[in-house]
Design a protein that fits this description.
With 491 residues, the protein is mainly α. It folds into 2 domains: 189 residues, Fumarase/aspartase (N-terminal domain) (Fumarase C, Chain B, domain 1); 262 residues, Up-down Bundle (Fumarase C, Chain A, domain 2). It is built from 18 helices and 6 strands.
Amino acid sequence: MIHRIHRAQDLDPAVIVDVARAAGTLELAPELLTELAASRAATLADLDGETPVYGVNTGMGAFSSVRLDPAAQAHHQNTLMAGRAVGSAPWLRRDQARALLAARLRTFLDPAAGVSPALCVFLAELLNAGVVPAVPARGSGAAGEIIPLAHAGAALNGTGQVLDESGAATDAAPVMRAAGLPPRPFEAKEGVAFIEGVPGLTGLAVLAAAAVRTLLAQNVLVSAAAQAVVRASRDPLHPALGRGDDELAAVLAAMREVRGDGPVRALQAPVSFRVTAPALAVAMRAAGALDAAAGRALSMITDSPAHVDGAFVGTAGYAGTDLAVACGTLTTALTHLADLSVSRLHRLLDDNVTGLPRQLSDAPGRHVGMGTVHKRAAGVAHRLRRFAVPAVIGSMETSLGQEDVQSFGFEAAECLAEAIEGLRDVLACELLAVHQAVLLGGVPPGLGDRAAEALGAVAAVLPEGTGDRPFGRDVSTLIGLLTSGWGLIAL
């Protein structure tokens, strides 16, 4: 699909996700390029003087008081990349690095960035050609993202590295030339513009929010199917309980559809079953908050210095605090959902709760059933707790005190990614137990049609039978099924 960008707002989060996944290409409309040419001309005109402009005719950080002579200025926008490209593997995944570039392009479409239309076109062409910079995923201990962005910028000017199809780093220049894109040096102010702001965290947040939306819908289906298996009371799903809370009302409606109208086994189900819907609503709100923060990051001025009203203005748009806090909140919400999934899974092993064989074993004593699957889930959930510590906590001085606070945005994104991956793993374990329960006890009476169909898709990809086998292979299969988009329901 070709996304034709007529204005900056057209390059929205949905388009960024599409481009990051290599499902769409970009085309910048002529009228947009004309507007960029005008803002670029104004930027160059205001650079033509003796006024100090940070990172253009001065050094950066602790060297910001050093004025650069014309000869140094001629190379400065490219040498900015060399000394700051200090990262190494592990690299961002291809889709993550592409999201970074797409977010960078979006911010460059703002006239405050003052970059040339040619640089914007080059970024679009790079994305369309599938050339992906090697960008370090860790070790970004700056007030912004200068280390990962320096790696991305070094790839553009041919001095850095790009990823090959296996995800390994290789020299950028030959790959770019083979793609018909000779390396492009940065021109006046373009280098400092490239390494400012938070396009990395923004792109990662956009991808994470999209993945979480899918995962929450799947969590609704799995947890409600588990409720059907234990024949839990439908009282906690009553529509009146969603009054005044749109997210909770949506979750309750979806869970009622999956749970169906089958019989009830006990007056009250274990607490983990009863509080799942509110916890999912909390996670939905947190995902919405991350969406909103990403939208603000794409629209606000993040360049520093930004060209505003004929002057170059230093900003704090590189801090990314809004996004980092939103990532941390969502990480905590997902970690809690993983804990709940582990608890529900444990209850599924209890014959007093389900009326099925203990540990969902088809031969108790001879076969362990789902007992060790639960242990795996417990281990994964415990690991996630270390990632729930907010990444914005823990400032350290760098650059001789010039930077005495860091946002650690990439760390916030990494913690969120771990929570997403971990919740998916735990949910796959619970789904396997639901599948085993259905094989042992039959499809729960009254189970919703869509849930029954989804469980049929699970049965189609797993081995037949209920006897012990290397269940880790089954969990891996179900993780793949969840990743592919299994079990989506409207929320």
